[in-house]
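Exercise 7. Given the encoded structure of a 166-residue chain, write a plausible sequence.
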């Protein structure tokens, strides 16, 4: 087979319809746009309009809501904590807080607090201060003689509520 023998599958290429070229073409006069009105004009696509049929977004039931008081906690796994301790980015002898985790490069920011999760293995005794922790994470830390201090996360102020809504 040579390059000049290559061809597309039959029917794969379709020539475009030249609209507005006389009544005999079948796409003359209004050019397939119907009569007058909004949809005959250029640049109009009525979002969600289904020709008078009840639109899909109105046929489906309403479900759920956005809780503006929900806390945005940042998750840290035990495995990442251990890796930072081994890399000497975290000092296990001091209490590990959210600010210490940011300084160590484990988190970019604390948001509403830190939640400790149990994925990975911890090998070092450590005291960690967080806004929340899973049962498996607490058990793994306490098994090594460390402790998890769960402090109540800071409540959202009116300014942060306004940001959450926006």
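Solution.
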């Amino acid at each position: 087979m040579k390059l000049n023998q290559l061809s597309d599958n039959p029917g794969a290429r379709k020539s475009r319809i030249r609209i507005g070229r006389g009544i005999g073409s079948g796409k003359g006069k209004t050019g397939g746009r119907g009569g007058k009105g909004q949809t005959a004009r250029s640049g109009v696509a009525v979002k969600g309009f289904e020709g008078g049929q009840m639109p899909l977004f109105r046929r489906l039931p309403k479900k759920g809501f956005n809780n503006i008081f929900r806390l945005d906690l940042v998750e840290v796994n035990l495995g990442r904590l251990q890796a930072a301790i081994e890399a000497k980015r975290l000092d296990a002898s001091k209490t590990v807080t959210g600010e210490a985790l940011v300084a160590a490069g484990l988190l970019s920011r604390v948001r509403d607090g830190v939640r400790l999760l149990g994925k990975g293995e911890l090998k070092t005794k450590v005291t960690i201060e967080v806004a929340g922790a899973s049962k498996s994470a607490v058990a793994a830390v306490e098994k090594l003689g460390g402790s998890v201090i769960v402090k109540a996360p800071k409540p959202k102020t009116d300014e942060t509520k306004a940001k959450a809504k926006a």
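Remark. The helical segments are 56-59, 78-86, 98-104, 135-143, 158-165. Students should compare their own answers with the one above.
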